[in-house]
Design brief:
Rossmann fold, alpha/beta, 7 helices, 13% strand
C-alpha cells in the first residue's frame, strides 16, 4: 500500500472513532471547563503532546489553561479542573496527579479508552474515546496504525471539537482568538 492509501485508511479509522464519541460526555467536559477557574491539562508521551495543543487553544479562547509540569504552571485549587488524556488510564505518572488534584478539591476529567481504569474511576467527568492502547495495538484491534496512534489522533480531533464548542458557548471566533496568539515568534 502506498503512503496516500495509508493516509486514506487513517482518515476512515478516525471517522469511525469520532462517530463513537458520546455527545453527553463531550458536553459535560466543555461545561466543566467553562465553569472552572483554571484548567490544567496532562498526559504522557504523544497523548501529552495532544494535551499541550489543547491547552494552547483554551488559552486562545481566553481561559486560564496550563500544562502540568511547565515551570510557569501555578498550583491547582478547589474550583479548578485537571484534564488527563490517557489511553490506558493506568499511566503511573498520571495517577498521583489525579489523586492530588482530588485531595485539593479540584475536579478531574479523564479522556480515555478505559473508563474502568484507575484514572477513570477517579474522574468527576469522563469521556470514553475509542482506540487501542499501545499494548493492545498489536492484539488485533481494528486499526492498521502502530501502538496508540488512533487514540492519540482521535484525542487531538476531540480536543479541537471541544474548543469549537467552547468558542460557540462564549461567542468567540478565530479573529478574537488570534489576538491571544503568541506574537514574539
Amino acid at each position: 500500500m502506498d503512503t496516500v492509501k495509508y493516509a486514506a485508511e487513517i482518515v476512515k479509522e478516525l471517522q469511525r472513532s469520532v462517530e463513537r464519541i458520546a455527545d453527553a460526555q463531550a458536553e459535560a467536559l466543555a461545561d466543566i471547563i467553562l465553569r472552572s477557574d483554571k484548567v490544567f491539562v496532562a498526559g504522557a508521551g504523544r497523548s501529552g503532546l495532544m494535551g499541550r495543543a489543547f491547552a494552547m487553544r483554551l488559552m486562545h479562547a481566553g481561559l486560564n489553561a496550563y500544562v502540568v509540569g511547565e515551570t510557569v504552571t501555578p498550583g491547582i485549587d478547589k474550583g479548578d479542573v485537571l484534564i488527563i488524556g490517557t489511553g490506558s488510564g493506568e499511566t503511573r505518572s498520571l495517577i498521583p496527579m489525579a489523586q492530588k488534584a482530588k485531595s485539593l478539591g479540584a475536579a478531574v476529567a479523564a479522556v480515555t479508552i478505559s473508563p474502568e481504569s484507575t484514572i477513570g474511576q477517579l474522574a468527576d467527568a469522563l469521556v470514553n474515546l475509542p482506540g487501542a492502547t499501545k499494548d493492545q495495538a498489536s492484539g488485533g484491534h481494528a486499526t492498521l496504525q502502530p501502538m496508540a496512534s488512533l487514540f492519540e489522533q482521535t484525542l487531538l480531533i476531540f480536543y479541537d471539537a471541544v474548543v469549537l464548542r467552547i468558542m460557540e458557548k462564549k461567542g468567540l471566533d478565530s479573529d478574537r482568538m488570534f489576538g491571544r496568539h503568541a506574537n514574539l515568534e
